[in-house]
Amino acid sequence: MTAAGRKRASPASIIGHAAILVFGLAAPFVFPSYTFQIAMLWIMILFALTWDILGGQMGYNSLGNILFFGAGMYISAVVQISLVYDVAAYTSAFGAVKVDFTTAQYFTGIGLGIVAAALACTVFAVIFGSMVFGLRGPYFAIGTLGVALAAGELVGGWDYVGGGSGISMPVYPGEPEARSLFFYTLCFVSAISTFVFLKWAYSGRFKTTINAIRDDEEKAEAMGIHTVRYKIVAWGIAAFFLGISGAIFGNMAGFIEPLEVAFPTITFGIFMVVMSLLGGKGTLWGPVLGATLFHIIKEVSWTYLLGWQWVALGTLIIVNVVFFQQGILGWAQEKWPAFFGIVVDDKLSAKGAVASEAAE
Amino acid sequence: MWDNISLLIIAPLLNIQLLLDGVLIGAIFALAAYGLALVWGVTNVKNLAQGDLVIMGGYVAYVFTTLGIHPILALPVAFVLMFGFGWLIYRLIISHVIDRDLFTSLLATFGLALVIQQLLNLIFGPDVKIAESGFDILFLFGGQVTLAEIKLVSLILAGLLATAIVIFMKTSRMGQAIRATAQNPRAAKIMGIDTDQVYAFTFAMNSAICGAAGVLISMIWVIQPFFGTSYSIRSFVIVTAAGLGNLPGVIIAGLGLGAAEQFSGFVIGAEFQQATVVGLLVAVLIFRQLQMRRHRRVVA
User: How far is A312 from chain B (nearest CA, A)?
Assistant: First the structure.
């Protein structure tokens, strides 16, 4: 099984990319009442894409990537506030003192906050990477889950950042419409940049290396690949973009709090896994597809199955994982391998081996 | 924090109180962890819904108290009911993930945990519940150390249950089949053991053990639909620290975890009790990594 070399972009794929861009740009104007939901869709796509770097391409199933989302959110908040106020005074005076940010202060704050969140989360990834990359399989999943849960609990007990009662973020200086458009643009741009960056990263040596780690780490190491370095770089990329999304989401939500908003391990933290699996992990488009589908299912079940939405989601996770783990794109690759540039040499491979290989 | 530590030094009886509370609750953690180790060792399924099975058992006891029946009588009922539930879950979900990669079982049982939590929430509501047992409180050391009798009773019950399970595993035909399958499923199959049946029985028995543990928890502590996750994490801490198939290790780690939680709750504040559990999990995993690194191996 070999993937065909890099193809020249076909007209169909150009039209497809353009259609998504046009949808992204036009959506807030065509569906103004759904701007927030569509902004969330872009964040979900970012989640799924970043989870898939480790989970799909590298074979390290993390349950704790949400750590970087929450860390980014809090770092951005602290940076934004500390530009103008004393953070401890700001958080302890929660609600009691009217705080104002001028337009210039607000936008400098949010810009610096996003940059700081992205960089600091990358540093975190390097630190935590050295802590957890000696773990494999289920231990890695449980260990990362533990780190993320611990982070939420510790932030909840840390009074400097407001503890369990959270921080109310600086108020956007302007009209509500302008505000939602501003945050929509940020979400859209961050998701598209993640996609473009990953498309570039997956087109070269990086992808083959992390795929080698997934397929057989010991052999990869024996081939002279510095596996630890690659693993940390991969996690750093995920953390970088997740930090950005956290900073944006915190400001968009307007209020941040450790357990439900910043470190929602059992909601967003699991959603990113499920979305990647649903679309087909280990592919570039799978997470995008999965996130879109999942977000639609989630919004519909929230509307029509109120009270039962979590039961429905849990069932979806079980069914997805147990009966449909290859995901939509994995299934399609199995069905039409030629379309995906997968060449199967019938002389070399038995029929059964083909199916199992194409599923990977 | 330092005030609390100095308080422990000034009043040594306080240490006894915390140790006693911790060990008594830790015995029940050990029970749930033993179930996890059993399923993990035999079927290689990592059950993240472990804690939620515990909480389900707790609600059986709660239902008994609302009907005016003493919750201790719920113990055998919860055992049987949860055995059936475990069997059902095995047939519906676990049997499909048993041969799959390690992450599948983790995620599938996580989905199961989500469903159980939410169903319990829909049925019983999000309030904290307790199954009132009506036992007295003992005063030791001239009244400075209190001990609820129910905690002693539950310790005895947990011990009896654990002994019964160990005897069952050692002597009965099914117990032998379970141990044989854990050692080598292929060989067990050749010897005529229906391994699928063994897996189903193991998971159902784990579920029953959890149910019984839940009854005890509901009498000495409180239950709530979303408390399950912390019991799952506790079970993982204990099993990871003790290793699979190490029953004395599981008991010691369980008792130790219970005591560690009580002490940290007292010293750095009750809001960090949960953080202590997950912190210990991370610490155990890091320690195991360092241990393995000396032999140039990884924790897998």
Answer: 8
* Per-domain boundaries in chain B: 2-293
Per CATH, the number for B2-293 is 1.10.3470
**Domain region containing A148:** 34-264
How many structural domains does chain A have? Answer: 1
- Residues in chain A within 8 Å Cβ distance of B100: 325
Q: With CB atoms and an 8 Å threshold, state whether B115 touches A311.
A: yes
- Render pLDDT for B84-132 as a digit per residue (tens, 0 to 9): 999 999 999 898 888 877 778 888 898 899 899 999 999 998 888 888 8
For residue range B249-261, list pLDDT tens digits in order.
Answer: 898 999 999 998 8
pTM for the whole structure:
0.84
Backbone angles phi, psi at B224, to 5 degrees: -155, 145
Residues from B in contact with A at Cβ < 8 Å: 46, 93, 96-97, 100-104, 106-108, 110-115, 117-119, 122, 229, 233, 236, 240, 269, 271-272, 274-275, 278-279, 281-282, 285-286, 288-289, 292-293, 298-300
Q: Which ranges of B2-148 would DSSP assign to H, the alpha helix?
A: 2-10, 12-43, 50-66, 74-89, 95-97, 102-124
HSE, side-chain direction, 13 A CA sphere, residue B131? 31
Per-residue pLDDT tens digits for A187-229: 999 999 999 999 999 988 999 999 999 898 889 989 988 888 9
Contact A143, B278 (CB under 8 A): no
Chain B partners of A153 at a C-beta cutoff of 8 Å? 271-272, 274-275, 278
